[in-house]
Amino acid sequence: MTTFRWRDVPDQGWVLWTSFQFDMVDAQLDEDNRFPGKKYAYAKLEDGPPEIGFAAYGFSMREGTLTRQERSVLREPSKEVVPSPRNDGTSHYYEWRNTMLISMKGPGVEEKAITFTSTYDAYVNEFCTF
């Protein structure tokens, strides 16, 4: 699975800000410890219609596996990095992580988060190989 987050940066235009790439079988959705069984957090940002919201969900990688995060060089690295081949290795770099957070913002986001998190584990169990 690959995720993408683009950001409109002044004097740069739209920049790939972050991207995670991982095997779904290795990434487990984290449970919200405040609400057992719930695997996302949601906040309403603006009343509707349509309601504008923000949803986030976290993943932890299974023991012995990592997710690859590609980040723009406009962001300060937080650990050892390797150049990404994007733009000949001058604009992005890779870091490897054992956890990640993915977020969405906009209309209908809570329903999208519910659908994604409620079907992720079933999809992995049915279509991914352990």
Description of the structure:
- This protein is mainly beta.
- It is built from 1 helix and 9 strands.
- The strands form 2 sheets. A 5-stranded antiparallel β-sheet has the order 1-2-6-8-7, with no helix packed on it.
- A hairpin with an 8-residue loop joins β7 and β8.
- The radius of gyration is 16 Å and the shape is globular.
- The two termini are 15 Å apart.
**Number of strand elements:** 9
- Poorly predicted runs: none
Number of helices, where a helix is a run of at least 4 consecutive DSSP H or I residues: 1
**End-to-end Cα distance:** 15 Å
Principal-axis shape equals: globular
The portion of residues assigned to helices is 10-25%
Main pleated sheet: 5 strands, antiparallel
- Rg, please? 16 Å
What order do the helices and strands follow? Answer: EEEEEEEEEH
Q: Order of strands side by side in the largest beta sheet?
A: 1-2-6-8-7
Strand residues, percent:
over 45%
**pLDDT average, as an integer?**
93
Helix-and-strand structural type: mainly beta
Please name the defining characteristics of this protein.
130 residues; 9 strands; 4-stranded antiparallel beta sheet; 1 helix; mainly beta; single chain; globular; 5-stranded antiparallel beta sheet
Task: Give a short synopsis of this structure.
The chain is mostly beta strands and about 130 residues long. It is about 15% helix and about 45% strand. The chain contains one helix and nine strands.
